[in-house]
Amino acid sequence: MATGLDGIKRIDEIDLKGKRVFLRLDLNVPLNDRQEITDETRIQAALPTIRYVMEQGGKLVMASHLGRPKSNEDRQRYSLEPVAQRLSELLNKEVILLEDPGSDGPKGLLKGLQEDQVILLENLRFHPDETKNGRSLPAAILDYTDVFINDAFGACHRAHASIVGLNPEVKEQGVGFLIAKEVEFLDKVLKNHEAPFVAILGGAKVSDKIGVIESLIDQVDTFIIGGAMAYTFLAGQGVPVGKSLVEEGKKKFALDLIERVKARGKKLMLPLDHVIVPDFKEKSQRKVTSGTGIAADWMAVDIGPQTIQSYQDELRSAKTIFWNGPMGVFEVEEYAKGTFAIAEAVAGASAVSIIGGGDSASAVAASGLTDKMTHISTGGGASLEYLQGDALPGLEALREFSKKKGSELPNLVTPE
Question: pTM score, two decimals?
Answer without folding.
Answer: 0.87
